[in-house]
Amino acid sequence: MKSVIIYTQNDCPPCTFIKSYLTDKGVAFEEKNVANAQYRNEMMEYDAFATPFILIDDEPMYQIDMEKINRTLDIEA
Fold first, then answer.
1. H-helix or E-strand containing 32?
2. Domain positions in the chain
3. pLDDT band at residue 76 using 50, 70 and 90 as cut-offs
4. Global pTM?
5. How far is the C-alpha of 53 from the C-alpha of 11, rounded, in Å?
6. Domain 4-73 has CATH 3.40.30.10
7. What Pfam families does the entry give (predicted)?
8. What are the C-alpha distances in Å from 64 to residues 32, 37, 48, 52?
């Protein structure tokens, strides 16, 4: 099973969308809200400055790419 981490922030519609999508598809993920300074610093180590920032098996995804997400996680679109 692939490791999925989503860096989010409050009041972020794209963050809510991707979390709902993965939940609906039965994909387990860890959410890290960047209101927490530790998580914000972790995200910035990847030169990521916008949420949602997604890590799948430590491979960064700087924007929501549904095709890539579905392919990488073996999700039937």
1. strand 30-33
2. 4-73
3. confident
4. 0.94
5. 15
6. yes
7. Glutaredoxin
8. 16, 23, 13, 8
